[in-house]
Amino acid sequence: MVVRRKKKSRYMRGTRTCGWGRVGQHRKSGRKGGVGHAGMHKHYWTWVVKYAPDYFGKHGFTRPPELVPRIRWINIGELDIMAEDLVEKGLAEKVNDKIVIDVTKLGYNKVLGQGKVTKPLIVKAPFFTSSAIEKIKSAGGEAIIVK
User: Fold this and answer.
1) What is the CATH classification number for the domain harbouring 105?
2) Is the Cβ–Cβ distance between 109 and 89 less than 8 Å?
3) What is the reported pTM?
4) Using the 8-state DSSP alphabet, how is residue 117 labeled?
5) Digits of tens for pLDDT over the chain (147 positions)?
6) In what order do the strands lie in the sheet with 110-112?
7) Is 53 in the same domain as 90?
8) Which domain holds residue 95?
9) DSSP letter for each residue of 55-66
């Protein structure tokens, strides 16, 4: 490689184009090969092969939205607060001083363990976190997994 004695870092003030040839040669993107991903299938093909081999083509598939299970969750602390109101509205029932709540009737399918449990609850749900099960049992209730 030949050493450049005159470096481009010399500003060349007063020379109209400052070392970039004719007017317009340093404008826009003509000297850089285009803007953005221009030329990926043309003059940047070797770059694509080396650095972005998966840039072109289709990869994988998207599952139909109706088949993707949607997790709707509720915290056990919220259930504890709502328990009495749910009994009054008929969405839960009281059996032997324990309140039985089926969260699927409320539109949820997972019970998370945030919050405090102060009353014994029997909670029915398809999914529970381990902390939710622990808190329910420590308050004298039980977690029933329903399919």
Assistant:
1) 3.100.10.10
2) no
3) 0.57
4) -
5) 777 777 666 778 888 888 888 988 888 888 889 999 999 999 999 999 999 999 999 999 999 999 998 999 999 999 999 999 999 999 999 999 999 999 999 999 999 999 999 999 999 999 999 999 999 999 999 999 998
6) 73-75, 110-112, 127-128
7) no
8) 73-145
9) SSS--S----TT
